[in-house]
Amino acid sequence: MQASITNSTTRYGWGAIILHWLIALIFIGQFGLGFIMVRLTSQRTAFELIQLHKSFGFLLLGLVILRIGWRLGNVWPALPRSVGTLERRAAPLAHLALYAFQLALPLSGWALVSVSMLEIPSLPFNLFLMPNLPLAESDAAESFWAAAHWYLAYAGMMLVVLHVAAALRHHFQLRDAVLTRMITPSSDDGAE
Question: What cofactors does the UniProt entry give for this protein (predicted)?
């Protein structure tokens, strides 16, 4: 059977799989890049990495919006019968929290550069000028959004660690298909 771009009732399609792993890679990479760029002594290198961080932040925001639309427009595979009641109730909340953090982080970063007194333009991948959000510039606003972005980053990474731990638990301890269905796409007829 040929793999499908859309989901089936038992597995994810290529669309969801590619978006999931691309967003995961960028989200985790952004954390590492952010961690490094604020600790550099070279202002030139720091500036270049900040521009790269902003570029990937805007890309992440667009991909997450696309992923949410994809999720709303596709059937979603049901959890295996072996999954308990508590986990069945917690899984949608955990996914909702992941989406919320994946939206809030780039938005808080965009707000941060928008209120900055430095007025450094955002040039995603040096392709175009990204306009600032209509927020008033001030040192107090910059401090607020910097703190919000920092706390959201660490809380988001903790959520990612929990998500990975849950996936690994399903794969190695429970030995169900929760992880593998996010790696192997559905077939066109929806059969596994």
Answer: heme b
In angstroms, the CA 95 to CA 109 distance is 22
Q: Are 57 and 112 in contact (CB under 8 A)?
A: no
Query: What is the rounded CA–CA span in Å between residue 131 and residue 56?
Result: 16
Which has the closest alpha carbon to 108: 161, 69, 54? 54
Q: Strands, DSSP E only, in 28-177?
A: none
Mapped onto helix, strand or coil, the DSSP state of residue 3 is strand
How many angstroms separate the CA atoms of 122 and 164, rounded?
Answer: 32
Confidence (pTM): 0.92
Looking at the DSSP assignment, which residues form a beta bridge with residue 187? Answer: 3
For the stretch 47-101, pLDDT in tens is 999 999 999 999 999 999 999 999 999 999 988 888 889 999 999 999 999 999 9
Q: How many CA atoms lie within 13 A of 97 on its CB side?
A: 16
175: left (phi over 0), alpha (psi -120 to 50) or beta: left
State how far the Cα of 79 lies from the Cα of 91, in Å rounded to an integer.
Answer: 9
- Cα end-to-end span (Å), the chain: 10
- Give the rounded distance of the alpha carbon of 119 from its chain centre: 27
